[in-house]
Amino acid sequence: MSPQQRTHRSFVSYIDKSRRYYNAHGYDTPYQWATHNEAPFTPLTKPLSQCKVGLVTTSYFLPEGFVYRIPSDLPRLPYVESIHATDNLNNEHLSWAKDETHTNDRETFLPLARLQQAAEDGRIGSVSDRFYGLPTQFSHRQTLRRDAPRVLNWLQEDDVDVALLVPL
Amino acid sequence: MSLGARHIEQAGIPTVVVGSARDIVEECGVPRFLFVDFPLGNPCGKPYDVEMQTSIVDLALELVEKAFVPRTTVQAPFVWDDQDDNWRDRFMHVGDDNRAALAEAGAKRRELQEQLRGN
After folding, report:
1. What CA–CA distance (Å, rounded) separates A153 from B46?
2. What are the phi and psi torsion angles at A63 (to 5°)?
3. A129 shares contact with chain B (CB less than 8 Å)
4. pLDDT tens, residue by residue, B93-114
5. In chain A, fewer beta carbons within 10 Å around the N or the C end?
6. Does pTM top 0.90 for this prediction?
């Protein structure tokens, strides 16, 4: 395998890109991203084949008849829904590479079928009957004090052993 | 989402983040991170590519099993397009060719927000 040669890092810096992009839109105060010196860690306490896995998404879950006007219209509160009720998931107003791809295949961001197969194969114990929404909240305070605790509560209600989080 | 992963992990539920914004996730610091170097939108694999999606989910699960310290990152072995890497530059592009248009779009957005707040 021949090495490539680059003068710059290959993987995209979204922190730098978004700062420049929103500055170009006239927003002068750059967003401050969360950063920590440490991270928590909980090892698995039982085999994965006995674990219930829950999926957490940043997609919006929009009510019927929702009309978008401005970003603050979007429902950013966390939500929990049946894995059989994914039709109201919406990524239209999220910032992703709309010129390069699409999210019409739900499995690209909410891999429920892939997890169901993993359960059938015995790789995991089961998939939670519900999935959990944690739309991106730009307030760290609200995320930590209100939203993440709600999602945690639902995961605990459902006896989820492992959480797979997929930010779009 | 990274803050959510941290909160859930702290409470005793192992987590793994599967995503494509490496710097955002790693700066925050999560227990386990499967980095998929794709344009944002398809972190769990290309549309309708069941084999790839299965492989990515399997890697994420393996990461839950095998990571032994926090801030463990594994990069998935998939390339978005081996003929065209320019998707990296295209996203949120700012240049002389669009700077004025972006400034105008921002001004219109703020004007609309003010109007709607006034109502």
Report:
1. 32
2. -70, 160
3. no
4. 999 999 999 999 999 999 988 8
5. N
6. yes
